[in-house]
């Protein structure tokens, strides 16, 4: 299920695959997964087709790496954003912000995940779903912490989790419009204001307002 490599040096594998993923993301986005060849990916990455096959076995491997690059970034960046934060509202806001910023840096790959995941085998689609659930668990934990602290109303945690996911993905899916009118920071701030305004308790609203005041 995972992508195997002939090369055994982990650092070299990581570096080469990063180059392959960057080239593949650009080509898959421009001309589609089915119409893109390994030869074209290699050419854009500045390496030979034979070298590509030392790091992947087939084109499906490349697509999986492109999508996992986004999912792995969530797993890295959300915990990093939470370091040193204890307040539940701060942690929820930081979680949403980190998720959105990963999408901002990987807009093309995020759109590809929607468009091309169906091209992967069932086992690989299941792998992506499992990794997505691991990421979503971090969002759900931040929501649940706010509810336990009586800063959010008692709401369906799963529904709110996926509302947050869809808001973040919306930045990529509608980037042609949104990026011409908002920065990613403005998008995150306005989305949080709309989303949290309806579900924060009185105590939560005061905490959120105080947080906004500290950021001015």
CATH topology name, in short, is Tetracycline Repressor, domain 2
Provide the number of structural domains.
1
Q: How far is it from the N-terminal to the C-terminal residue, by CA? A: 48 Å
Would you state the CATH class? Mainly Alpha
Label the CATH architecture.
Orthogonal Bundle
Uncertain spans: none
Gyration radius from CA atoms, angstroms: 19 Å
Which percent band covers the strand fraction? Answer: under 5%
Average residue pLDDT:
94
Describe the structure.
By secondary structure, the protein is mostly helical. It has one domain: Tetracycline Repressor, domain 2 (Orthogonal Bundle), CATH 1.10.357.10. It is 75% helix and 0% strand. It is built from eleven helices and no strands. The longest helix has 27 residues, at 122-148.
Describe, in short, the structure shown.
The mean pLDDT is about 95. This protein has eleven helices and no strands.
Secondary-structure map with pairings?
Elements: H1 10-31, H2 38-45, H3 49-52, H4 59-82, H5 88-105, H6 107-116, H7 122-148, H8 157-173, H9 175-178, H10 184-197, H11 202-215
């Amino acid at each position: 299920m995972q992508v195997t490599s002939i090369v055994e040096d982990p650092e070299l594998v990581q570096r080469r695959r990063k180059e392959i993923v960057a080239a593949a993301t650009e080509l898959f986005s421009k001309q589609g997964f089915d119409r893109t060849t390994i030869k074209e990916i290699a050419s854009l990455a500045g390496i030979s087709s034979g070298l590509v096959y030392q790091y992947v076995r087939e084109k499906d491997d490349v697509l999986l790496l492109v999508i996992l690059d986004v999912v792995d970034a969530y797993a890295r960046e959300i915990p990093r954003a939470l370091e040193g934060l204890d307040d539940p509202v701060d942690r929820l806001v930081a979680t949403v912000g980190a998720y959105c910023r990963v999408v901002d840096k990987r807009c093309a790959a995020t759109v590809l995940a929607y468009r091309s995941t169906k091209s992967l085998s069932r086992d690989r689609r299941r792998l992506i779903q499992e990794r997505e659930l691991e990421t979503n668990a971090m969002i759900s934990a931040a929501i649940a912490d706010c509810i336990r602290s009586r800063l959010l109303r008692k709401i369906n945690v799963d529904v709110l989790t996926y509302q947050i996911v869809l808001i973040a993905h919306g930045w990529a899916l509608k980037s042609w419009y949104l990026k011409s009118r908002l920065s990613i920071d403005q998008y995150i701030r306005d989305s949080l204001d709309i989303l949290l305004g309806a579900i924060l308790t009185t105590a939560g609203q005061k905490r959120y307002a105080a947080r906004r005041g500290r950021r001015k």
